[in-house]
Structure formats: structure tokens, C-alpha cells
Amino acid sequence: MNRDLQNFLNKKAILSEQSARYIAAQNGSIERDIGTIKEAAQKMPNKSELLKNLRPQANDRAVYVLNRTIRASDRGTTPYRMWFVSKPSVKRIYEYLEN
Questions:
Q1: 30-44 per-position pLDDT tens digit
Q2: CB atoms < 10 A from the CB of 58, how many?
């Protein structure tokens, strides 16, 4: 890891977990998250009849929902709350679902 990045992480009190490169077994949770995002994004256009060129927006919506979802690996809280130290609003999820 780059020394400047390590200093930045230390200054912000961010814990960095490193794994060996190109070894999927060590990246289990992120691999599952990526799979969840891909699957959700692939299904969204089918459900809402979006054009294929709107796939980036489908990915964005999938990540938005995933960041507001409680997972066991996040110690019973959401990634949003861990990052911003406040409860996420779920109002926009309903807006996303309506559009």
C-alpha cells in the first residue's frame, strides 16, 4: 500500500483490510456484493422495461439500496450509517421504485 494512502487512512481513522491480489477467496464479501449489484441491475431493466443504455443508472440504484441494507458482516448496521454516522433515509428508495 502506498505510504501516502496509509497516512491518509490513519489520519481519518479508517481501518484498511488488505488481501492478496487476484485471490477471490479472500474477497468473499465484496465478490458477493458485486454479484448482488450485477444481478439487481440486470433484472431492473427487465422489470421496468428500461433500455440497455440505462444500465449504469440501474447499477447506481442497486448500490444505493445495498448501502442502506443491514448485513451480518456490518455488525447489524448499514454501510451508510457506518460511513456517515447517521441513519439513512429510505424515502428515495420509494422514489426509485416508482420511477
A1: 778 888 888 888 777
A2: 22
